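WARN retry 2 of 3 for item q-0093 after timeout on previous attempt; input resubmitted unchanged.
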Amino acid sequence: MRSELRTIYGKLCLCSVFRGVMEKPLFQAFEKYVLAETDEEKRKAYAAFVAEIYEQGGSLTALVERLISEDENVYVKSVAEGKRGWAQLQNSVDRELKNFSCFAALTSADFASDMGVSLSEIPEFTSVNADMGASYARRLASLHKYGYGIFSSNRMFRLSDEKKIEAIVSADRTGISQFIGYEQERQKVVENTRAFIEGRPAANVLLCGDAGTGKSSTVKAIANDFYDEGVRLIELRKDQLRHLPYVMGKISGNPLKFIIFIDDLSFNQNNDDFSMLKAALEGSASATADNAVIYATSNRRHIVKESFGDRDGDDVHINDTLQETLSLSERFGLTVLFSKPNKALYLRIVKELANRYNITMEEKELERQAEEFAIRKGSRSARGAEQFINSLR
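OK item q-0093 returned
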């Protein structure tokens, strides 16, 4: 058995297309196992190998399949761009996938035999015989839905301070159907997203209005609802807008569709990020990508903070300056206003949430307490209604 494990390892060492897969902890642990010189080293490496499988669900086969599907390599990029790989590249892909199939079919019993111990003495994992070539071909056929690399298994992403796109692992999974109220406002954003997915003209969207009305939640819910149709969300802080060309460059050519999400957008005068966002909304080649739209939220209709002092400034052409300041919001193709709810809508949200969470209370008493809660908060809002129900729960 020792020779079989070494043979599989030797074949995997020749991976060139899927080189990134070989750098994952699973394969590093396997390498340490095969190259171990003592029984103690071998057992530690096996324990690390199985620990990695357990972290990912317990199946070696499923883990290998996922690592392959997520790998961002020259072959998958060429397929995504509609190019046909040259013969040598295709041959390498076929050969490497066959080797991965052999590796993914290894069993706990194979390792027990190799270590000269009984199966009951070692931690076990599951595996099956699987054709990695066939499963990879199915994945390639659905690239426009599932993508590749980091985007293949996550819904939402952020840009780190190190200018790296990283997954938001604990992303909100709320869907549009779970919201109460603001149906007409949300429907406008849904229809725009549908047009975007179908390749029809779609607008950059500004969701503006009062705090606590569900603007940010709407954008995230849309990303969730359209995940299986190839939509991903990348969130940028407004101080990261200078990196917008970098983000657009990273996703350009990707078969997926991306919502660039900027939450709580507002600018002071003379903010350098103002110009970068303006360039993106105007379609500047360096700041846009064909497969991306910008969805932003703001409590301000005109986004840029303006004071009466600005109107009395010392600019020679003060009107031109004011128009430049106020024009940013006009560059969004679609503006959707979320106003604070009136009493009827507020109480409707409260009652439906109470019913959803099985809160039993006489209706008039529920309304009275909800109004008291809103008075203490200072205003009615959808967020306040949810906070009130949570306080009862």
